[in-house]
């Protein structure tokens, strides 16, 4: 379990990184936190010709929280985002989901953006990016562009990015007003990839009635999906909404797979349970943020 | 007054080096050695058609490539059947490197030696092996169906049919007031020590000697195997087990192919060669255990007392049987547990499958045996509407029945005769410890919180300390240092501490003066190994006997000097003194000096023993029958195993929405006779329980139908983290063994044995559905509870009406 | 122009001592520490980042040294288990409270996973306010990311409490 041979560069800027990526061609791969890539190398399931380590690129380690949302630089570690109270203020899901990412030693090294670029459907932050309608900034030799989550995730461990490209940040829109969120996951062991997880957002109208309900799931389907569950509870007063009905609706919308740790049926069960539980929590938060 | 250390929670002396990074594990040895890597079969069953090494040859740093064609003499023959048995009628073993056919994924085909492991893996990756795939047999049902054979000359896939009976079971069953028949399965798991296997070899061409370090549980036997296979005289081979990062059974198997191939390469290349197994190799090329299917028919009377027991077990032994049928025998013989079984018949069919070999993993067939018997007790209780503890109590062997002969033959070829125990005492302590009487109240309380609570228990008896023997050597040096050595090995059990406690107590010296060496054939050449909870029993008693021999000689010499009778002398804190006469004393270190008559002095102490310092010219300096030096070697060879026992109870809470299983209480009552170091024994119990919980709720080897192991990583083979292991409460009982001088019984494996049985019982109690297959995950539990055909327990029906 | 290499010289500080090693770029930090710098106290248990045996501190924070390339720690300060004890300026060493606690509480058996636990716990205890009594949640977090196959964790958790109590005592 030793990585195969590769060449290594640690450019000092995004432009230099793009130069190396362009020169090295398809065999080049960006290395940031490496917490998913290094195991693949150790098992020789990946054999990049060149690793382009962006850890020395200045300026990518910032979390910028503004009224509109949170921009997370490509070198922000999970642990850094978890500690960022300003980010949690703007988009509470970030800290809630990040707390469930693996274990502290992995969170100290792994990056939020890296886990998004890894496009693992069991990744906590891929689900959050989807649910919040987020995007990533992709630097290419031709310039920078925003890529929305829907255009980014193509399949399990597969993004739409090709050719020389560096994801320089991810943007998570702020939690809307009169909204609340919650995140929960069930893993076989604490810190494992979730058997199933749910990230939800509930938005109320000015009368504290349910206006919108959306959910995204982990480890359910090949790419993150956002499901609109509003119809199950639309217009219901927040205190008497039937979250179980939303859970039941969610179960009909998902199409999970069976793997070693759980059957598709069990995952569907958890989708229902986690939906109901997280919605109740998110609704309480939304109610707290909505003037009575 | 003697130095009292036996029985004390003495802190471990191994720890000083292990907590500072100064341990010396296999891969820490031989910096700069060449590294070996292996091309292993990607197929579960295939004929090798071609091996093309061409592409590997230009890898810079490649040193050598070996295939079966390069093996000569005994190396080209099959690996040994280590433990032959008359009922193992079709033993099969592999070769160090595959000879034409591979029988499981992971079997070594080519060995590559290179300047480091990275390069060795590069070269291995480029070697192209052609395979013609053959039909694959995976799983007990497929093996039994025998549409295909793992070994063509064993068409029914049955390696062994192990059979024991204590009477005529069929009439006994026919005459029983009640009978029940049921089947159960238990899946594969594995030891997975944090350190994999590993071998380092250094050949000295000048004196034609070989030194091998191996992360093994049996260094003396590895030595013998290497000598035989590489055609070396035994005295030219030394094998040392350095610090070993856990064993749990997998490292008792030997010789592993690598234990022969690495020394072979070192000899041929004249260079140091090392192989440190990586995690993926460990999953696919070491050993697994546990996989069994059990069919139980039990007869019992209206009070729930056993009248007859008939058990048929199908045991998955993997592709080969190098370790014989030890696991099946243990299952067969330990199944009876602490109970009176009037008539017992057991048949274990050991089956070949195209999977990794199956050899002992901590517990070694006992967790399965316990699962069979304890779940039988639960079923009897359920059928009769009796309390599960009460049914057990009625069937227990009572303290006045010892020695208790089960009329079975154990894994050591000796009778299963329980030497001592107090099983009702265990059960009483257990029910008190777990609060068995209050389970119904707690169930109601949990229900109020939306949780399903259930409790379960399991008892076991464990044969420990099997022979044939272990030895010990104790030597007092002129410096006062006491050297202790024994041949068996250590993998974290604290032997350096425990054996030092024993010797210090026996000899009357401070523990700091005692230095213990294990698993080093240079120090002690005769040994069997560390397995079957035997180290404390076997080597503990051996070093005690050796220490007693030293003590006797010391008293004899001191008596001469002090002009006293040896029986009036005592040794305390390293001083031999006349009891009750202060001042009449001689340090033990001086006795050591005097024990060796000298011509040459090299320090002040030695002068006392030189020829002009001693004056008795009436007898030779070394008397006939005596020997120079204050040392003694002795052996302990028991008549038969000593039987430890214990009882576990688990309380679970299950979330009826997600079916997550939370072990909220785990109680252990443990009896391993006299305890040398209670801190270490508790540590063994803790670790065993964690493995038991892992085996019950998390760990399984998931093979697909093609014989590919689907979860060969710690990401998917779920060894519990701290978050998955419950806190354990322990109560002790001490029933000394009458069989050995120290009255001790083994403790190493006990903790793991009842895990699956107790947890299955608790889960069944919580959900009211029969749990007959372990391990069980939340996903599987969900399948069970919504399966309309799944059997409901009578207890749940009685408890809730017919609505369970 | 960015250099693209197959080998590099890495300079770093290990346990307070400046060190340098010429390594192939693919060498993981664990192997560089063990094989190039001779610090074999750090153990590799799984090589894929799950078990935590190889955990070391990089600039004070626990990371899996099997999931970091040696070339990536250029200029960094690495602490391994060999660096936990402090020099007592009398030719000996003073063990870190967590090392003492592991021995006192029998928190290790085979010792293979121990270095990873020790550095993780030491870093965690040092990052918290020693004067505060440690909570069970903190204990769980500190031990929760490493695998041990011997101890069942009971005594490791006990050792964390013990070490925290010692540090609390020292902080008074």
TrEMBL record, chain A:
GO terms for molecular function: FAD binding; oxidoreductase activity. Residues 1-177 form the FAD-binding PCMH-type domain. Keywords: FAD, Flavoprotein, Oxidoreductase. InterPro entries: CO_DH_flav_C, CO_DH_flav_C_dom_sf, Diverse_Substr_Oxidored, FAD-bd_PCMH, FAD-bd_PCMH-like_sf, FAD-bd_PCMH_sub1, FAD-bd_PCMH_sub2, Mopterin_DH_FAD-bd. SMART domains: CO_deh_flav_C. PANTHER family: XANTHINE DEHYDROGENASE SUBUNIT C-RELATED (PTHR42659). This is Carbon-monoxide dehydrogenase medium subunit. It comes from Geodermatophilus tzadiensis.
TrEMBL record, chain B:
GO terms for molecular function: iron ion binding; oxidoreductase activity. It comes from the Bacteria. Keywords: Molybdenum, Oxidoreductase. The keyword Oxidoreductase applies. InterPro entries: Ald_Oxase/Xan_DH_a/b (IPR000674), Ald_Oxase/Xan_DH_a/b_sf (IPR036856), Ald_Oxase/xanthine_DH-like (IPR016208), AldOxase/xan_DH_MoCoBD1 (IPR008274), AldOxase/xan_DH_MoCoBD2 (IPR046867), AldOxase/xan_DH_Mopterin-bd_sf (IPR037165). Residues 20-135 form the Aldehyde oxidase/xanthine dehydrogenase a/b hammerhead domain. This is CO/xanthine dehydrogenase Mo-binding subunit. It comes from Geodermatophilus tzadiensis.
UniProtKB/TrEMBL annotation, chain C:
Gene3D superfamilies: 3.10.20.30, [2Fe-2S]-binding domain. Pfam families: Fer2 (PF00111), Fer2_2 (PF01799). One of its GO terms (molecular function) is oxidoreductase activity. Residues 8-84 form the 2Fe-2S ferredoxin-type domain. Pathway: Alkaloid degradation; nicotine degradation. InterPro entries: 2Fe-2S-bd, 2Fe-2S-bd_dom_sf, 2Fe-2S_ferredoxin-like_sf, 2Fe-2S_ferredoxin-type, 2Fe2S_fd_BS, Beta-grasp_dom_sf, Diverse_Oxidoreductases. CDD domains: fer2 (cd00207). Keywords: 2Fe-2S, Iron, Iron-sulfur, Metal-binding, Oxidoreductase. SUPFAM superfamilies: 2Fe-2S ferredoxin-like, CO dehydrogenase ISP C-domain like. It comes from the Bacteria. PANTHER family: OXIDOREDUCTASE WITH IRON-SULFUR SUBUNIT (PTHR44379). This is Carbon-monoxide dehydrogenase small subunit.
